[in-house]
Design a protein that fits this description.
single chain; about 150 residues; two-stranded antiparallel ribbon; 4 strands; MerR-type_HTH_dom
Length: about 150
């Protein structure tokens, strides 16, 4: 079981959590009621605190002793939680991007061929634009075309 435990695993009863946080159990109950630090519950309804909950209780005590109001502390804890989730998501996306790059055989570039077909251009290949690929070629106006014999 110990190998599956992390900072969010609820293991401490309220008396132990209060002692670890340096608070009275009634303070923990009050924080739970107002939604400041909400522990998980057992099937029987008993509160169980995780090590992350204990750290939050200590942070609440520190911030409160510095004069911060409980609503401000609640907002700060919400923002910290959101930041933690966002960091986790960024790490997941970075890992996904790494996997994608590892599974890709090479960078591929696509262009339009002279007949309008899609052409795959291998990485590092030099293209002769005039014969192989036409990205866009503007039409000349008849007055601008010196080879136009219809202007007599």
């Amino acid at each position: 079981m110990a190998e599956h435990m992390d900072a969010d695993t609820p293991v401490f009863a309220i008396a132990v959590a209060a002692e670890l946080a340096g608070m009275h159990p009634q303070t923990l109950r009050q924080y739970d009621r107002i939604g400041l630090v909400v522990p998980r519950r057992t099937r029987g309804g008993s509160r169980r605190y995780s090590t992350r909950d204990i750290a939050q209780l200590r942070e609440v005590a520190q911030l409160s002793s510095e004069g911060m109001s409980l609503p401000a502390i609640a907002r700060l804890l919400d923002l910290e939680d959101e930041a933690r989730h966002l960091r986790r998501r960024v790490a997941e996306l970075e890992q996904e991007l790494r996997r994608e790059r590892e599974n890709r055989p090479g960078v591929r570039v696509f262009a339009a061929g002279a007949e309008g077909s899609i052409v795959t251009v291998p990485s590092g290949r030099r293209i002769r634009r005039s014969t192989e690929i036409v990205l866009w070629r503007p039409r000349r106006a008849p007055a601008d075309d010196p080879d136009d014999s219809s202007r007599d």
